[in-house]
Design brief:
By secondary structure, the protein is mainly α. It contains nine helices and no strands. Keywords: Sigma factor, Transcription, Transcription regulation.
Length: 173
């Protein structure tokens, strides 16, 4: 998606929760989302499902996107993950077990692995990244994270689980 097609004013208004700006952002982004989904997903039905899911995720999480520059990459990673999820659900892409993940990760050099892990953290949506960094880097407890974020233990645990799953997916592609 071309960030030039979306003005910074529109993006900021949508990020801050303006309903009209969000609707305009969704309308502007939809053709590019659909085009990317058609190029990435294995079938036209999956592409339509991925487009709808990406639009829904954008609607729910537009406030978490840090900048207009990061918007396109974030949105396309959402579409790519949806296409992969739909392919796995259909049995077209095998799920990777933990032993295979370990073998893939151990085959990389330490420097490459550090860069890959940093990129995986960066690719996470902000609300997942914050929880994962607090738990896995700062080694905070679930209760400490919940208190820091003003969230429930269950929310923190769910976000941590999802963050780790997304990072695992990122590292195994």
């Amino acid at each position: 998606m071309s960030a030039a097609a979306i003005s910074s004013g529109l993006f900021e208004a949508a990020r801050l929760g303006d309903p009209q700006a969000i609707a305009s952002l969704l309308e502007t982004a939809q053709p590019d989302i659909r085009r990317y989904a058609r190029a990435t997903c294995r079938s036209s039905a999956d592409a339509e499902d991925a487009t709808q899911e990406a639009m829904w995720i954008l609607f729910r999480h537009v406030g978490t996107i840090r900048s207009l520059v990061a918007f396109s990459a974030w949105l396309f990673s959402v579409v790519r993950r949806e296409c992969l999820r739909l392919a796995r659900k259909a049995g077209l892409v095998p799920s990777i077990d933990d032993g295979e993940v370990d073998a893939q990760l151990l085959s990389r050099s330490e420097a490459d692995l550090r860069l890959d892990v940093a990129a995986a953290f960066e690719a996470l949506p902000a609300h997942y990244r914050d929880v994962a960094l607090m738990r896995d880097v700062k080694e905070m407890t679930i209760d400490e994270i919940a208190a820091a974020l003003g969230a429930s233990r269950q929310t923190v645990k769910a976000r941590l689980h999802r963050a780790r799953a997304l990072m695992r997916e990122y590292l195994t592609r």
